[in-house]
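User: I've been trying to design a sequence by hand for this structure and keep getting stuck. Would you show me what you'd pick, starting by listing the structure so we're on the same page?

Assistant: Good idea, let's start from the same input. This is the structure you sent:
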């Protein structure tokens, strides 16, 4: 977990906004940024965002719910949300963990995701839900 980034503290209630400001979420981050990572799946490699993890009840939409668009593909389990005006990915409900949202660390107000070192890359090409053991 990461409690501050480049000297900027992660607030227990931290705001997340899209680029144009239409969509604002409040994230409950009592443990800071948990499990930040990138992913190499067909979707994530295109957006290249650093994604953090929260339980579903840790995101509250402050404004712009009507501006959020939903994108689903392939198995259509995951729900990828983005601002319909500026196109920025804000958060998504995971396929691998439907009890979690991933969120765009770069949308956390005041946080520079490039200052987070050694962000791991998940092997989304070989998705855990596709692995047959
Ligand atoms: Zn926007």
């Amino acid at each position: 977990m990461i409690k501050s980034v480049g000297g900027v503290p992660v607030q227990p209630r931290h705001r997340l906004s899209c680029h144009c400001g239409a969509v604002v979420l409040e994230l409950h981050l009592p443990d800071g940024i948990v499990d930040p990572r990138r992913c190499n799946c067909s979707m994530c490699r295109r957006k290249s965002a650093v994604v953090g993890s929260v339980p579903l009840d840790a995101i509250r939409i402050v404004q712009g719910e009507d501006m959020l668009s939903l994108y689903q593909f392939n198995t259509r389990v995951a729900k990828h949300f983005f601002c319909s005006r500026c196109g920025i990915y804000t958060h998504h409900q995971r396929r691998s963990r439907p009890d979690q949202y991933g969120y765009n660390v770069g949308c956390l107000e005041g946080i520079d995701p490039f200052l987070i070192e050694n962000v791991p890359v998940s092997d989304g090409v070989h998705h855990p839900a596709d692995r047959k053991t």
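That's my pick for every position. To get oriented when you compare it with your attempt: The chain has one domain: 11-114. The radius of gyration is 14 Å.
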